[in-house]
């Protein structure tokens, strides 16, 4: 079975990360699959909205660390860069459902969604600095806009996680509910019933103020991220992480 499931429900495309045994950690092939599905949805007039969700108890543990270390992203053509470009430029409404852990890109991809639903079990974290890296997906620009400079600095510089209630207070999450998947699908169908061109144009207007600025920040983040990956700090942090994970296994 595919690690990314694609299901069409009326005019809604539901994309599910499907590696529950690995907390839906995302591999290069999964990034490519997500990008392909998003591009097809962008080009398909019948698809009016997309939902991103995870199978099992967790949204995603972020990058699959072993896959990531084996072949780290090296430029704008890497699978992860293509995925980030896809969600940043996706013209139709993106919704997400988060339960359990949303680590790294599992949190930062949400900044590009129109509406995010979460269960009370959701826990968000962006431990880039802890891994010797820097923020990505435009998060260094978007997150301070949401929560203020000092709160963003505290979370980025410590790697501290935050709860679903915190995420709602920050404005990252719209709804916290035990039936988050059902509510997200109902909302997606409500949006899908609206005049589609009006929906697309309204999303474009909502993003117009900051879209190009975020694109520019994402480019700088990507360059610094690639440099950080080659550093001794990152290698030591990755080795510590993989050693701890192996002991846990």
UniProtKB/TrEMBL annotation:
Lineage of source species: unclassified sequences, metagenomes, ecological metagenomes
MF (Gene Ontology): delta(3)-delta(2)-enoyl-CoA isomerase activity
Name under which the protein is recorded: Unannotated protein
Compartments it resides in: Peroxisome
Main localisation: other
InterPro entries listed in its UniProt record: ClpP/crotonase-like_dom_sf, ECH/Chromodomain_protein, Enoyl-CoA_hydra/iso
Keyword field: Isomerase, Peroxisome
Any single GO CC term annotated in Swiss-Prot or TrEMBL for this entry: peroxisome
Gene3D superfamilies to which the protein is assigned, alphabetical: 2-enoyl-CoA Hydratase, Chain A, domain 1 (3.90.226.10)
């Amino acid at each position: 079975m595919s690690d990314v499931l694609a299901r069409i429900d009326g005019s809604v495309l539901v994309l599910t990360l499907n590696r529950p045994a690995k907390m839906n950690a995302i591999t290069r092939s999964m990034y490519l699959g997500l990008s392909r599905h998003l591009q097809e949805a962008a080009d398909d007039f019948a698809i009016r909205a997309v939902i991103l969700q995870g199978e099992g108890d967790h949204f995603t543990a972020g990058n699959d660390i072993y896959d990531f270390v084996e072949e780290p992203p090296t430029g704008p053509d890497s699978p992860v860069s293509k995925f980030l470009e896809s969600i940043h430029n996706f013209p139709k409404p993106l919704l997400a459902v988060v339960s359990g852990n949303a680590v790294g890109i599992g949190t930062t991809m949400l900044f590009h969604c129109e509406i995010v639903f979460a269960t009370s079990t959701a826990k968000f974290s962006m431990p880039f600095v802890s891994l010797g890296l820097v923020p990505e997906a435009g998060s260094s620009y978007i997150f301070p806009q949401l929560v203020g400079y000092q709160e963003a600095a505290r979370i980025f510089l410590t790697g501290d996680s935050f709860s679903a209630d915190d995420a709602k207070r920050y404005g990252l999450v719209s709804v916290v509910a035990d039936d988050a998947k059902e509510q997200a699908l109902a909302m997606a169908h409500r949006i899908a019933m609206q005049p589609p061109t009006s929906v697309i144009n309204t999303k474009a207007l909502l993003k117009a103020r900051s879209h190009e600025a975020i694109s520019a920040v994402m480019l700088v983040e990507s360059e610094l991220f690639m440099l950080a990956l080659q550093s001794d700090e990152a290698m030591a942090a990755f080795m510590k992480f993989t050693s701890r994970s192996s002991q846990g296994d």
